[in-house]
């Protein structure tokens, strides 16, 4: 067999949570056809509004059928008509809300500052590659979205440097401070080249939001060190806590930040359209823009998908109705989830946005493992290997797939993440029962 490149070895390695998907997809739970199959509560999908979306897209296709031009190549950065509706009816109306008349405000309405890519993963990968040479780092507060490492590293060899957020057990929240970011930077910058800082806000996995004061401090820190500030705002429109609102980094930005700040968005989460593979980069940095302009051929979204999405976004009533419906479904399901956890006396971080519950089962995992391996010292904290063993048993024995805390770069083991929108409540409840039955019996 002819040999392959050295790179190919690295390309063909997958993290364990990706490998597990092979098992999960080959034995998917179905209440009638495969009741013993695996219930997948790990992947960030939202099925709660799928029926509404399918019906609406059917109507969009009837009202605005494909035209011959939609069969052709298009502007790979995003077709102009599509970007117009994206910017006017979604980004600027619901997320950025930078609607003033200053020259700087107008940048947020300029479609040429928006790049449509093949999912946010694709944006993250290309942005990391644009900012970092191989082996250089981007700081990310941890626990952090488990895909960042793969996205940064897989093809372009950039790296994640976690900034540990402190868990406050009196309020069950994680605290991020600019002092901690500075401390991490000072500790590592002597030996590593740190090129940027990424904040996932609203946060995956905790579901928490970071306010404008800390965001401002973080941008100022990045400017002081002359590194990039990346805001991953994928869950901006999935804020379901009625007492909270999200403030995008765009509202905090001043003219002087234009070269440092980049925003990532996607239709995968807020619009429940993971399969459409539509991610967005907003940037005013001319160097970054030149890269995305030149490489857009590798990141394009099909003309047909753009056509369909443009006609969905054009109808402001669709967008409005959808956002309201989604928020009410998120709150309803999240409340059921929390009730379940309260009944089981489980510590969880109170989410305000997003699709996840981040909860702690260290005590239950330890007891489970002590029954399995009586030699284990129950008084010692759970280790990463022990957490991993429970995660594997949950898939192999209990037929439920959740995400183990160590995948999110936590240092305290025993946390898990469930995507509470990945199944309707009856299936979700069976999945949770399976997990708790495994650990308790
Ligand atoms: C915070 C965050 N960023 C990026 C992504 C990637 O999303 P996409 O499906 O648009 O590639 C995800 C997906 O779960 C995510 O949660």
From TrEMBL:
<dbReference type="Pfam" id="PF00155">
    <property type="entry name" value="Aminotran_1_2"/>
</dbReference>
<dbReference type="InterPro" id="IPR015422">
    <property type="entry name" value="PyrdxlP-dep_Trfase_small"/>
</dbReference>
<dbReference type="InterPro" id="IPR004839">
    <property type="entry name" value="Aminotransferase_I/II_large"/>
</dbReference>
<dbReference type="GO" id="GO:0008483">
    <property type="term" value="F:transaminase activity"/>
</dbReference>
<dbReference type="GO" id="GO:0006520">
    <property type="term" value="P:amino acid metabolic process"/>
</dbReference>
<keyword id="KW-0663">Pyridoxal phosphate</keyword>
<dbReference type="InterPro" id="IPR050478">
    <property type="entry name" value="Ethylene_sulfur-biosynth"/>
</dbReference>
<dbReference type="InterPro" id="IPR015421">
    <property type="entry name" value="PyrdxlP-dep_Trfase_major"/>
</dbReference>
<dbReference type="InterPro" id="IPR015424">
    <property type="entry name" value="PyrdxlP-dep_Trfase"/>
</dbReference>
<protein>
    <submittedName>
        <fullName>Aminocyclopropane carboxylate synthase</fullName>
    </submittedName>
</protein>
<dbReference type="GO" id="GO:0030170">
    <property type="term" value="F:pyridoxal phosphate binding"/>
</dbReference>
<feature type="domain" description="Aminotransferase class I/classII large">
    <location>
        <begin position="85"/>
        <end position="423"/>
    </location>
</feature>
């Amino acid at each position: 067999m002819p040999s392959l490149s050295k790179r190919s070895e690295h390309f063909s390695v997958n993290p364990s949570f990706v490998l597990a998907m092979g098992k999960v997809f080959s034995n998917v739970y179905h209440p009638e056809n495969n009741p013993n199959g695996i219930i997948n509560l790990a992947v960030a999908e939202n099925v709660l509004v799928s029926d509404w979306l399918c019906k609406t897209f059917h109507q969009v296709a009837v009202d605005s059928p494909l035209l011959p031009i939609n069969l052709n190549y298009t502007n790979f950065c995003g077709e102009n008509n599509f970007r117009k509706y994206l910017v006017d009816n979604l980004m600027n109306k619901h997320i950025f809300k930078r609607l003033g008349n200053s020259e700087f405000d107008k940048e947020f309405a300029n479609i040429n500052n928006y790049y449509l890519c093949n999912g946010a993963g694709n944006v993250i990968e290309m942005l990391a590659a644009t900012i970092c040479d191989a082996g250089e780092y981007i700081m990310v507060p941890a626990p952090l979205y488990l895909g960042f490492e793969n996205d940064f590293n897989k093809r372009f060899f950039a790296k994640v440097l976690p900034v540990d957020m402190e868990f406050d057990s009196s309020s069950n929240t994680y605290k991020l401070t600019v002092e901690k970011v500075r401390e991490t930077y000072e500790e590592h910058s002597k030996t590593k080249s740190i090129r940027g800082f990424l904040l996932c806000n609203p946060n995956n996995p905790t579901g928490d939001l970071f306010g404008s004061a800390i965001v401002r401090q973080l941008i100022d820190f990045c400017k002081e060190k002359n590194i990039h500030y990346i805001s991953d705002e994928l869950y901006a429109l999935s804020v379901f806590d009625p007492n909270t609102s999200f403030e995008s980094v765009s509202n905090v930005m001043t003219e002087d930040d234009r070269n440092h700040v980049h925003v990532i968005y996607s239709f995968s989460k807020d619009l429940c359209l993971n399969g459409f593979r539509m991610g967005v980069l907003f940037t005013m940095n001319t160097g970054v823009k030149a890269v995305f302009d030149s490489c857009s051929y590798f990141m394009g979204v099909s003309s047909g998908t753009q056509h369909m999405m443009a006609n969905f976004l054009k109808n402001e009533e669709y967008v409005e109705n959808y956002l309201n419906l989604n928020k009410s479904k998120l709150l309803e399901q999240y409340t059921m989830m929390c009730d379940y956890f309260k009944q089981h006396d489980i510590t969880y971080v109170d989410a305000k946005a997003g699709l996840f519950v981040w909860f702690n089962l260290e005590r239950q995992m330890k007891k489970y493992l002590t029954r399995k391996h009586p030699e284990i010292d129950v008084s010692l904290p759970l280790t990463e290997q022990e957490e991993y063993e429970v995660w594997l048993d949950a898939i192999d024995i209990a037929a439920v797939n959740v995400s183990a805390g160590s995948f999110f770069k936590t240092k305290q083991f025993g946390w898990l993440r469930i995507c509470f929108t990945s199944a309707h409540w009856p299936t979700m409840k069976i999945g949770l029962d399976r997990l708790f039955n495994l650990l308790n019996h």
